[in-house]
Amino acid sequence: MNPTRYAIVPKHPAAHLFEVTLTLTDPDPAGQRFALPTWIPGSYMVREFARNIVTLQAFNEAGRKVRIAKVDKQTWQAAPVKSGTLTLRYEVYAWDMSVRAAHLDDTVGFFNGSSVFLAAEGREDAPCIVEIKKPAGPAYANWRVATSLPEARGTKRYGFGEYRAQDYDELVDHPVTLGEFELATFKAHGVPHDIVIGGRTVNVDMDRLATDLQRICEAQIALFEPKSKEAPVERYVFMTQAVSDGYGGLEHRASTALICNRADLPVRGRPEMSEGYRTYLGLCSHEYFHTWNVKRIKPAAFVPYDLSRENYTSLLWLFEGFTSYYDDLMLVRSKSIGEVDYFGLLGKAVGGVLRGSGRLKQSVAESSFDAWIKYYRQDENSPNAIVSYYQKGSLVALAFDLAIRASTNHKKSLDDVMRLLWRRYGRQFYRGQPAGVGENDVKALIQEATGVDLGALFDEAVHGTRDLPLAELLAPFGVTLEPELGNGSGKPSLGVRVRSAADCTLAAVHDGSAAQKAGLSAGDVLVAIDGLRVTGANLDALLSRYLPGASVEVHAFRRDELRVTRVKLDGAEVVRYRLEAGDKARSAARTARERWLRG
Hints:
The chain is an alpha+beta fold.
């Protein structure tokens, strides 16, 4: 099958328009169909990328227009051409500053292939060649290209020119950053890894970032391949867009696209580990772990991806939740953070799950299946209706890991489960043996890998809604788990989450809370408590003047109607949980904890 050829150029950066051409030398003689994905793997929501195609035309080999018509929301049908090539030329509007789609202005360009490259139906297995062109004008003289797509002959690394992919799936699994960016390179067990930082930055310590990421990457490679230390890629690219306020990442087979607050990046001359930098390293660790867990070890429902519609699986708790467990665990195993910091992160995760009553109504398996309509489309009632397969999934992984270690006297662990999944499903995935994990296979796989039948713990953790017995599971490791009240005080609570510091608009009202009992709802704007003006910034300070159980008069607007209600304040909310390793723990517990945290 002849290659499908693409060319993409930032045609009008100020108008945020990419121009794409697609050329087929052997189009379907009955009339070629083209389609654009509706979603991007790793972000489980239908996003309708075709809505960003502004103009589209088709031409034959002589340059004459060929009739082409849209047949559904994402598909076009071209009229038959008697012989020769068929070329599409279309414009894509790119103004999504996230990791999921495409963005273009006069300072930076970024795109995922699923947002810009139409697929020629019936030719998805054909090789693809894409020419990435530099925008015209002297303002772009210093722009470069960052991508993990392999360069075609004659194209220099980071240069404009031709890149190649074995098929359409590979083409859309390598995002591209265009512009001026900072660059660092390191090797993890011999494999080159690039760090690309775009956006306006000041004094970023790229050497420190390379050193820290090298340790994290090598720890993960060694987890999956303890003997050979063989990475699953020939080259890997971390590409980050630094902004004033942002956070997110999306995994790909040999790279990740990240967005972060520029203040979170390490600063030259400041060796301390800031909370922001720790968060950024955790994000990098999470997306890198996906190189194995979901990009190669996949649920059977994703083999292959059907990018035209939702692909349902009840296993995202395994692929996202287990990844969320290992991302921070790899920080402590790589010595990027210490035990105390790690326990702080675990306590934050426990608090994040236990604060929402949705955990008592939805299992992580149900949360995974409904990601398309619930997790990625959250509203004001989400804390009361859903549980995060990321956060609770990470606690499920923690529970399984601790239970396996305790049952086998630390001879086996969750690491053994991940290695079995890798050997059976991941190692050969892109080498001609694609297979996926079945919806009901995980319990048996855990037993096969470790010899442990998790029994009721597995069933309740995955399909049930009761809280996990984490305190009991942590005890043999000499670790206690205790709740902490808000700000460490006994101040009362309304049981709400506010939208911003500027005003006191309620973003969420928790089940059974003082606010809900008084009839307050999400969207209400609190204006006064006992006659004193309230904002999102001073709400806690006002409430601190009262004792739990006190009755206060609240004035609030619902739409344009002023409401007055009395609220009986709740006791202090538990905002986080404290994990502590006791100094007097038995030596066996200390040894068990060391084996867990050091791998």
